TrEMBL record:
<dbReference type="InterPro" id="IPR013762">
    <property type="entry name" value="Integrase-like_cat_sf"/>
</dbReference>
<dbReference type="InterPro" id="IPR000477">
    <property type="entry name" value="RT_dom"/>
</dbReference>
<protein>
    <submittedName>
        <fullName>Transposon Ty3-G Gag-Pol poly</fullName>
    </submittedName>
</protein>
<dbReference type="InterPro" id="IPR011010">
    <property type="entry name" value="DNA_brk_join_enz"/>
</dbReference>
<dbReference type="InterPro" id="IPR043128">
    <property type="entry name" value="Rev_trsase/Diguanyl_cyclase"/>
</dbReference>
<dbReference type="GO" id="GO:0015074">
    <property type="term" value="P:DNA integration"/>
</dbReference>
<dbReference type="GO" id="GO:0006310">
    <property type="term" value="P:DNA recombination"/>
</dbReference>
<dbReference type="InterPro" id="IPR043502">
    <property type="entry name" value="DNA/RNA_pol_sf"/>
</dbReference>
<dbReference type="GO" id="GO:0003677">
    <property type="term" value="F:DNA binding"/>
</dbReference>
<dbReference type="InterPro" id="IPR010998">
    <property type="entry name" value="Integrase_recombinase_N"/>
</dbReference>
<dbReference type="Pfam" id="PF00078">
    <property type="entry name" value="RVT_1"/>
</dbReference>
Length: 685
């Protein structure tokens, strides 16, 4: 569908424009009599039904646009330039006479300034701005949010929607709503998606609101299709970045902390550094930036241009040079710029926080080098970092609203923060994770960590008593139900790729006894040994259960000729044969059964497992994909398989882990009452 951007791209200086509004146009599209029964409603005791397109039905705008496609297609073939958005049309031509020829019905007065989709398009000044009504609406929203110290999440979301819809007519608007969006996202997570809960705005979000309030009356956005005056080429690698302007080349190596970022982020950071470096040469000029990374191009709002990597020779070479200054100066700190005229780019810490907020700054204050800081942060696993980062970002918002230094906070501040999480109905487990996260940054005198402080431990015990964390399962599903279902998926040679994939995934999960959603993701055909009646997989990556001196290194799957319907070796043989032609360069064992058959994530594996569980008749609202581990190991114990064999297969350190978290009774389909009646019947009948 066309949009306001379509009209902007077609505007020329001093062009003439007109607009057509097909009012009540929806009412000209009838609904088939047999389908009108789906569009009924009751009002004051009477039942009504729509006989034409109703306003508010999601499919109507696109359907109506498709109806007009042939009409405007013919007009464009005749040389008329137009943009249509549902029932609003925008027409343009270079001259007044040509624009008159473009329209045959009643339209608004032809002019170089026209209103279209809530924006003022001015071909004399070549700019777009908001209408007075729309600008006043934005200003009023900002005023209401600034006057309310605790607005609802819904009000903030509504304001964000209005800001986003106004962006075409507000220069730099995209730079001044992200903090508000971050606050809204954090508040939704804290309140489990409840939009009616109240939230607190951070100082950064309040600053953005003030910007919109003061800037919106005069806001506009230039429309420029002119020739570029300056062309900058940039590129980045994982070791350095480089740029080129005319005959001037520059390069710089990333610091260890910067090098931890994703390559897409580094590509955009290279553009930022290049613009700062050449600011004196490009000030006031129309600049084109050539990048060989399409994600970075999209991230700069399509104001850059894509250049194939094979053509990006100069910047690519500069991004991979390790200079003599790099060897002599190691990793010099980049001084943050103080004004727009200062050519020194800001440090990465100001542009984006590290994976664990505050950790880098805290270690730096204690005299730890940046390189040692990176190594220390590797001590936390990726999953732990994600959990901690969520609570540390909440901690940042909490401290910002109260003027507390997050790094130098007291134990009392931390306990009050945990108390606020409690009032927001977070579980004991979530609050305990938040306690561990705060232990990484709040230093307690005497060498005690925040989490082990007597007041903190007493508080967490109080949370457990008032909001106990009970086991997720009191009993587990019967594994025989799963085996009975898997037996129906036979013979494997006649299964389609989806059925074969799902059966293979479930058999691997049950027969391994492993934390399989994560382990399965790491199984590779390059680390696989195929024997006559078994498969051996070697895992060379760090797993969740890996620790110094202990690593689960291999998994064997043996054939089961007694029942070919449950033989994992037969499934793997057929699966590898069926995926050989679609595997391409992927070495991951299991691929997506949907085109284009790429490698899949852990979440996809979990969905596969739950899909099979549902087909087997299990209640997936109760049991998660990870329950396969507890179900298989509990069944093994019930069949008197040696405990040590179970522990070794599941990579547990000792029996206590199994008994405490995984060993559960198997659910029975018959109750006490049913068994009693059956026994009584056998006795007296």
């Amino acid at each position: 569908m066309d949009s306001i951007w379509s009209a902007i791209r077609l505007m020329k200086p001093n062009c003439y424009m007109a607009s057509i509004d097909l009012k009540n146009a929806y009412y000209s599209v009838p609904i088939h009599p047999e389908h009108q029964k789906y569009l009924k409603f009751n009002w004051k005791g009477k039942q009504y039904r729509f006989v034409c397109f109703p306003n508010g039905l999601a499919i109507c705008p696109r359907k109506f646009t498709k109806l007009l496609k042939p009409v405007y297609s013919q007009l464009r073939k005749n040389g008329h330039i137009s943009v249509v958005f549902i029932d609003d049309s925008w027409l343009t031509s270079d001259t007044y006479a040509a624009c008159v020829d473009n329209i045959r019905d009643t339209v608004t007065l032809l002019s170089e300034t026209i209103t279209f989709l809530g924006f003022l398009l001015n071909s004399l000044l070549m700019q777009i701005s908001l209408t007075a009504d729309k600008a006043q609406k934005v200003k009023q929203m900002c005023q209401e949010l600034l006057a309310n110290p605790r607005p609802s999440i819904r009000d903030v979301a509504r304001a964000l929607g209005t800001f986003t819809a106004s962006l075409p007519g507000v220069m730099y608007g995209q730079l001044h709503y992200r903090w508000l969006e971050i606050d809204k996202t954090d508040a939704l997570k804290l309140n489990k998606g409840n939009l009616d809960k109240l939230m607190t705005l951070s100082p950064d979000a309040i600053h953005d609101l003030n910007w919109w309030y003061t800037s919106i009356p005069s806001a506009h956005n230039p429309i420029s299709h002119g020739e570029t005056q300056v062309c900058i080429t940039t590129d980045a690698s994982l070791t350095a970045w480089g740029c080129s302007l005319d005959d001037v080349n520059a390069d710089e190596n990333w610091t260890p902390i910067q090098a931890e970022h994703h390559i897409n982020y580094l590509e955009m950071l290279a553009v930022f550094f290049a613009l700062k470096l050449f600011s004196s040469q490009i000030s006031g000029k129309h600049v084109k930036v050539l990048i060989d990374n399409t994600t970075a191009v999209a991230g700069i709002n399509q104001l850059a241009a894509h250049i194939p990597g094979i053509e990006n020779i100069t910047a690519d070479r500069e991004s991979r040079i390790l200079t003599l200054w790099h060897a002599l100066l190691a990793y010099p700190k980049v001084v943050a710029f103080a004004s727009s005229s200062d050519a020194n780019p800001p440090s990465t810490q100001q542009a984006r926080p590290v994976a664990l907020p505050f950790i880098g700054a805290l270690l730096s204050e204690r005299g730890i080098s940046s390189q040692a800081s990176v190594i220390i942060q590797h001590s936390w696993r990726t999953g732990t970092k994600k959990q901690y980062a969520t609570h540390l970002n909440r901690w940042r918002q909490y401290c910002g609203a109260r003027g507390i230094d997050p790094i130098s906070a007291s134990v009392e501040n931390g306990i009050n923060f945990l108390s606020e999480l409690y009032t927001q109905e977070l579980s004991y487990s979530a609050i305990n994770t938040a306690r561990s996260a705060l232990s990484t940054i709040i230093l307690v005198p005497g060498g005690t960590t925040f989490g082990n402080h007597p007041l903190v431990t007493r508080f967490v015990k109080g949370v457990f008593v008032s909001r106990p964390a009970l086991p997720r399962y009191t009993e587990l599903w019967d594994i025989s139900l799963m085996f009975n279902y898997l037996r129906t998926l036979h013979p494997v040679e006649e299964l389609n790729l989806k059925e074969l994939t799902l059966k293979t995934v479930m058999l691997l999960a049950i027969l391994s006894g492993q934390r399989f959603i994560w382990t399965l993701h790491d199984l590779s055909i390059t680390s696989m040994e195929r024997q006559e009646n078994k498969y051996i997989f070697y895992v060379n990556q760090l797993l969740k259960t890996s620790k110094p001196g202990k690593h689960w290194g291999r998994q064997e799957f043996t054939a089961y000729p007694s029942d070919p319907r449950l033989c994992i070796v037969s499934c793997l043989n057929q699966y590898l044969k069926k995926t050989e032609s679609i595997r391409k360069n992927s070495v991951q064992l299991l691929l997506s059964y949907q085109k284009p058959h790429h490698s899949v994530s852990c979440d996809t594996f979990a969905r596969c497992l739950k899909s099979v569980m549902k087909e087997a008749g299990l209640n997936i609202d109760i049991y998660s994909a990870h329950s396969t581990r507890a179900a298989s190991t509990s069944a093994a114990k019930a069949m008197n398989i040696p405990i040590q064999t179970i522990i070794n297969a599941a990579a547990w350190t000792n029996e206590q882990t199994f008994q405490k978290f995984y060993c559960k009774p198997i659910a029975s389909s018959s109750t006490f009452g049913e068994n009693l009646v059956m026994a009584f019947s056998k006795t007296y009948i």
